Amino acid sequence: MGPVIYCIKDEVTKKDFIKAMNEISTGTCIKFIPRRPHDKDYVFAKIGNQCSSKVGRTGGPQVLATSKELYIRNYLKKVTFFKSGFVNEP
Fold first, then answer.
1. What does pTM read for this prediction?
2. Cα separation, 88 vs 90, whole angstroms
3. Which fold has domain 4-83?
4. Which of 39, 55, 83, 87 is the residue whose CA sits 20 to 30 A from 75?
C-alpha cells in the first residue's frame, strides 16, 4: 500500500486533520502526503452537512466529509482509517 494522498478543503479543519493523520502515522505504517497537481487519486477532506466516506480506494477524488456536530479528532481518525481500507470489527 502506498501513501494516502490528501487535500483539505476547509482551512478551519486543516490543523485537526493533520493532527489526526500524524497520530495515525506515528502508530502505524500508514503515511500521508499532500496532493500534488498530477495526483488523480486522493482523499478530499471537508466539512459537510453529514458524515460520509466510502471504504477503501475507489479512484479519483474521494470525499471524506464530517459534519460540524461530529467534528472531533477521534472521529477524523476513524474515518481516515476507513479511507485507508480498514473497517470496524463486528
1. 0.67
2. 6
3. Collagenase (Catalytic Domain) (3.40.390)
4. 39
